[in-house]
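step=predict obj=NLP9-like n=139
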Amino acid sequence: MAAADEFYNKWKGDDAVTEHIQPTSPGLTDSSNGSRSTMNVMKAAYMEDTVRFKFESTAGCLQLYEEVAKRFKLQIGEFQLKYLDDEVEWVMLVKDLDLQVCLEILDFVGGRTVKFLVRDVPCVIGSSGSSNCYLTGSS
């Protein structure tokens, strides 16, 4: 819990926390291709780095992990994502349903930005040389 408090306090003065809590219009609409799809702003922090990007609300958890992996030059399975919820707690994002709940909370509070914490996953190497690492799935 101390790590969550540390990250919350780090971002507390950041305008993105204000964006997450204050009522606003949820998401952005992209109508450039004729269809109306909702884009959400995602903000992810890994170690000392932070990235911000738009993410299609209809995309799944695996696509989000892929985008974060690409931006931080990580491999899927080396990290896990946690999002900051409406009760200012870090909640693990493991499958599509978790992402759906995350976006529903964002809509409910009227926020514009979802904040993510990117955590390295410790990899345990067994005596046979095989590893037992956390792997994500899309559902």
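step=describe
Residues 96-109 form the longest helix (14 residues).
step=end
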